[in-house]
Design brief:
single chain; five-stranded antiparallel β-sheet
Length: 115
């Protein structure tokens, strides 16, 4: 386990990668009734994580592009429904990054850098 992944609350990068790493925090705030009927999912390079609402921190590669996406899933009503993805490709960089996942009342999403 890397030094970053050993920090409390950090989800480690589990795919094969021997290069440098950095921290990514994704903040997912509920909008309206979304928190009651949707569950957030974050994908890092295609690997999905069921997460909670709020800020979630991941360890990611710092020396190559990393694909990050967020979507919401529900089984409320007549079946399983997924929202459109909020997606971004992060360029290589040594410093930490913070993203805000914004979903509107019609569940359209966007991932926006913070800071």
């Amino acid at each position: 386990m890397s030094e970053l992944a050993s920090q409390p609350g950090v989800i480690p990068y589990v795919d094969n990668h021997d290069g440098s790493r950095r921290l990514l925090t994704v903040e997912i705030r509920p909008f309206g009734t979304l928190a009651r009927i949707y569950v957030p999912f974050v994908s890092i390079d295609g690997r999905q994580y069921v997460v909670s609402w709020g800020a979630i921190t991941f360890e990611i590669p710092a020396d190559r592009n990393v694909h990050v996406s967020v979507h919401l899933l529900t089984n409320y009503g007549s079946g399983v429904t997924s929202t459109p993805f909020a997606s971004i490709v992060l360029a290589p960089h040594p410093g930490p990054v913070r993203l805000f996942a914004n979903f509107t009342s019609n569940t359209e999403g966007a991932l926006l850098p913070v800071g």
